[in-house]
Design brief:
- The protein is of the alpha/beta class.
- About 15% of the residues lie in helices and about 30% in strands.
- Strand 7 and strand 8 (about 115-120) form a beta hairpin.
- The chain has 2 domains: about 5-60, 2,3-Dihydroxybiphenyl 1,2-Dioxygenase, domain 1; about 70-130, 2,3-Dihydroxybiphenyl 1,2-Dioxygenase, domain 1.
- The strands form 2 sheets. Strands 1-4-3-2 form a 4-stranded mixed sheet, covered by helices on one side. Strands 5-8-7-6 form a 4-stranded mixed sheet, with no helix packed on it.
Length: about 130
């Protein structure tokens, strides 16, 4: 096997402060030290995987996020422990969601730049670690 495990996922963002509010404040990921690359960004720890945010300068080539929440879009998935509690928290903050229900355990949302994020509670019909 060439790949040992996932190390990080990276998202292009237009406003690093707005992205920090989403990934740090809303999702609760702890921010970790990031080297100075000469452009704004932030790194977060999500279990064994890091999330790297890169504020892209105007006109820089980036992928185009979908115009709406879509489970079939490229996305990163983060494990959660309590499906109902996470849904309630997100709804209380007026975050648009696609919910599959606790039996399946998936929640889809978008960050402020339109990147699709999945939150999943393993152990439902999907996402088992068997």
């Amino acid at each position: 096997m060439l790949v040992k495990r996932a190390h990080h996922v990276s998202f292009s963002v237009s406003d690093i402060d707005r992205a920090r509010a989403f990934y740090g404040d809303l999702l609760g990921l702890p921010e970790i030290e990031r080297p100075d690359f000469g452009f704004p960004g932030a790194w977060y720890q999500a279990g064994e995987v890091q999330v790297h945010l890169i504020q892209t300068p105007p006109g820089a080539p980036t992928g185009t996020p979908p115009d709406r929440i879509s489970p079939v879009a490229n996305h990163a998935a983060f494990e959660i422990e309590d499906y109902a509690a996470v849904c309630a928290t997100l709804r209380s903050r007026d975050v648009a969601l696609i919910e599959t229900g606790a039996e399946v355990g998936q929640i889809f949302l978008q960050d402020p730049d339109g990147n699709v994020i999945e939150l999943i509670q393993p152990g439902g019909r999907l996402g088992r670690r068997d």
